[in-house]
């Protein structure tokens, strides 16, 4: 079974609101972490992830009110990918 871990950074959060200003959902966008250079002397974790997965984009629309406001631009997250059987 193949699995993978990615490290993503929140790019932006866009709330979708009704006419009264109540949030109905949030569109959250993420991109792969990256470093501006890949010098061997800079082996921090973001650099290591960027070398192995240099490009990624992920977007999700969240409709769960308990999660509104929980994601902020600049926050970093690990995302694990595991196949679903069945």
What does this molecule look like?
The chain has one domain. With 86 residues, it is mainly beta. It has one helix spanning 45-52; strands spanning 4-17, 23-32, 57-62, 76-81. It is flat and about 55 Å long. A 4-stranded antiparallel β-sheet has the order 3-2-1-4, with helices on one face.
Kindly list the characteristics that best describe this protein.
flat
Short note summarizing the structure:
The protein has one helix at residues 45-52, and strands spanning 4-17, 23-32, 57-62, 76-81. It is mostly beta strands.
Topology diagram in text:
Blueprint: E1 4-17, E2 23-32, H1 45-52, E3 57-62, E4 76-81
Antiparallel strand pairs: 1-2, 1-4, 2-3
Distance, first to last CA: 13 Å
Give the count of structural domains: 1
Cα radius of gyration in angstroms: 16 Å
- Shape type: flat
Spans of at least 5 consecutive residues with low confidence: none
Structural class assignment: mainly beta
Report the order of strands and helices.
EEHEE
Report the average pLDDT across residues: 90
DSSP E strands, number: 4
Oligomeric category: single chain
> How many helical stretches?
1
- Proportion in helices: under 10%
Spatial order of the strands forming the largest sheet: 3-2-1-4
The biggest sheet amounts to: 4 strands, antiparallel
- Strand content range: 35-45%
């Amino acid at each position: 079974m193949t699995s993978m871990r990615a490290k993503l950074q929140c790019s932006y959060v866009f709330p979708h609101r009704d006419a009264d200003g109540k949030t109905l959902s949030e569109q959250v966008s993420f991109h792969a972490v990256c470093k501006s250079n890949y010098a061997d002397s800079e082996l921090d974790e973001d650099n290591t992830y960027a070398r192995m997965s240099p490009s990624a984009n992920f977007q999700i629309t969240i409709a769960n009110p308990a999660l509104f406001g929980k994601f902020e631009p600049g926050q970093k997250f690990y995302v694990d990918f595991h196949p679903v059987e069945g």
